[in-house]
Amino acid sequence: MSLPSLKTRARLSEVRYEIRGELARRARELEAQGRHLIKLNIGNPGAFGFRAPEHLQRAIADHIAQADPYTHQQGLPAAREAIAAFHKARGTPNASPERVFVGNGVSELIDLSLRALLNPGDEVLLPSPDYPLWSAATILNDGRPVYYRCLPEHGFLPDPDEIASLVSPRTRAIVLINPNNPTGAVYPRALLERIVAIAARHGLLLMADEIYDGILYDGARFEPLAPLAGELPCLSFGGLSKVHRACGWRVGWAVLSGDPLASGDFHHAMDLLGALRLCANVPGQFAIEQALHGADTISALTAPGGRLYETRRALVECCAASEHLSLVTPAGALYGFPGVVGEAAHGFDDHAFALEMLETEDVLIVPGSSFNVPYRHHFRVTLLPEAEVLREVFARVERVLERRAQAHRARAVA
Description:
Layout lengths: L21 H11 L5 E2 L14 H10 L13 H14 L9 E4 L1 H13 L5 E6 L3 H9 L3 E6 L10 H7 L4 E7 L11 H14 L2 E5 L15 H5 L4 E6 L12 E6 L6 H13 L11 H6 L5 H4 L4 H15 L3 E2 L8 E2 L2 E2 L9 H12 L1 E2 L1 E2 L11 E4 L4 H27 L1
Parallel strand pairs: 1-12, 3-4, 3-5, 5-6, 6-7
Antiparallel strand pairs: 2-8, 7-8, 9-11, 10-14, 13-14
């Protein structure tokens, strides 16, 4: 007798995460067949030969004997003090260790914070394109994502007037990803001030995903949101995974700023949810103080001659040399988000293109529509490989796009 299949949660059908989805599963199958792939789907520095800085590794090694017990649900006191001091130096109002939450990466804290905030049917304003975890966490916590557009023709920056027009009686929060994943956009101060004004007018929580705050190119300036928000409740997310190249350590934090009385209930909800999962990974927390107050190890990588800068240069030059690609040059973060244009764009489908790149060119990229945009002519690559590897990737991209352009020409003549 066959057993009935287990039913899963219906809302999972609304969730997508193509960064590790169907294409990544197909990539594993091809690797099992002996194919050598260039995988540009995940911003995972360690997979490209980067290492967490030695002084962070040493901080963990020196304290490993103290890492066996559970710690406080909000994190090690010394780690929270270091995070609070870092934010206080930025001008974050009411930054204190009591208002810092350490999690197993920013991903866990995004989920916990939305669980603490949302009732069924509540709405969250999200950028389009977004990092799809934000959409997934909103949906799985019974909320509704409402997208404000960040269009390529506007440099992937949002229009505050559109954000204001999307606010409804069910809106609870505005999410900002700055510097942005997947586009690399960096938000100017005047734009952030206008968004803060919208949140203040409607009593909304600001949620600032700032995990790439130190990854900036060509003099781009990062403006933290919390100092601009002032007494308005703001939750600022950061961590060790990107700037400090320590993804596997699973260390992220969220800082709740603004008027403590206005956010008191939310603080208690976050504390309760943190307690239910006991605590975050303890060993990695010993590296936080050195990460935030020790030597700067990212600037050399993002300056001319640095590895990230030179790979970004390769991306810009390859797109500029192609008649089939357009690019808004990323000002920050670890990604490029090229668009397909011209003859190659006729009948273009980003998922079919990504599958063709995988099957015929041994390259794994992420379709742009995976980032919750309505159009299907973009794709995302990470800037983590060496520059020459990325140039080879774009030679293969060019090969596929030229085939598509030639097929369009042939159809036009027939």
